[in-house]
Amino acid sequence: QACALKLAKLVTMRVRHLQSHLQEQQLIHRGNLESLRSHRIGIDAVYWLRSIQALKDPFADALGGIPPGIFGFVDKELKAFKRCNITPVFVFQGMVPGPQHFMFVSRMDQQMELAWSHLARGQRTEAQKCFAVSTSRINSDFVYFIFHHLRQKGCEVLQA
Q: What are the residue boundaries of the XPG N-terminal domain, all occurrences included (predicted)?
């Protein structure tokens, strides 16, 4: 029973504010992809996906779909790594704890409802903003598809 309790604690552990910590310690550097030539690099897959501006489509998220062109974009990124002889290791998060607080879930639901109301009234811009807020978390099905797409392409993928 003690083992199960320790496992339960491990499942819900995560690194909070890692990005902020890394920036404060000046461990984040921006540069040319060429500077990583012939290296093997670890990539936080969800962070990487969130950073891709071309994939931000709140309407696709709201409908539970995948942003159009995702696989083409990922393949383009893989070609850039290959051109520089970079071996990417994509690290995907393990089990994600659900929202811990009822107010957070309630706010997401309210934003989604408001978004659909705006869309029904033809207020596309307002709807898009609300959809973006309510779907700010990456869809787990989307992550699953990318995980398997990368694996099928021969990439090294790990799940924490």
A: 13-98
